[in-house]
UniProtKB/TrEMBL annotation:
Alphabetically ordered keywords of this record: DNA-binding, RNA-binding
Protein name: Heat shock protein 15
SUPFAM superfamilies linked to this entry: Alpha-L RNA-binding motif
Keyword RNA-binding found: yes
Residue ranges occupied by any RNA-binding S4 domain in the UniProt entry: 8-71
Pfam families: S4 (PF01479)
Matching PROSITE patterns: S4
Family classification: Belongs to the HSP15 family.
Composition-biased stretches (Basic and acidic residues): 107-128
CDD domains: S4
Disordered: annotated segments: 102-128
Origin organism lineage: Bacteria, Pseudomonadati, Pseudomonadota, Gammaproteobacteria, Moraxellales
Organism annotation: Acinetobacter chinensis
Length: 141
């Protein structure tokens, strides 16, 4: 598991730490600006060293992790989780955003409107639009 003290390429480390399924996906994410170190975008050839703090964006999730160990070999998930530690602030932020997304999805209806429901909605819109037009025409005089 441990590598030399010199460091390891960031795309290889992200793949070994199981942030991305393949090295080419990790490379594409780095080139797309999804990986940062100290607020700056990194290049694919950047070397990762123990103690570095990386910000990695995957979909909706943005994780801030501290590198704890280096590995160029992809191992099982429990071993990969020993390579980094996510910061407390990052965990709290991700949980907050996840709960906000869940609450936002609760506002959706359970099913699509039926034909009758659509007729009622259209009738409601037409009646209100008509009343709205009348209101403005009376106030223009």
């Amino acid at each position: 598991m441990p590598e030399t003290a010199a460091g390891i390429r960031i795309d290889k480390w992200l793949w070994a730490a199981r942030f991305f399924k393949t090295r080419s996906i990790a490379k594409a994410a780095i080139e797309g600006g999804k990986v940062h170190h100290n607020g700056d975008r990194v290049k694919v050839s950047r070397e990762v060293r123990i103690g570095m703090e990386l910000t990695i964006q995957q979909g909706f999730d943005k994780k801030t992790v501290t590198v704890k160990a280096l590995s160029s070999a992809r191992g099982p998930a429990p071993v990969a989780q020993l390579l980094y530690e996510e910061t407390e602030v990052s965990i709290a932020r991700r949980e907050l955003i996840a709960t906000q997304r869940k609450l936002h999805n609760l506002a959706r209806p359970d099913n699509r409107p039926s034909k009758k429901d659509r007729r009622d909605i259209n009738k409601f819109k037409q009646d209100n639009d008509h009343q709205f037009d009348q209101f403005w025409s009376y106030n223009d005089d």
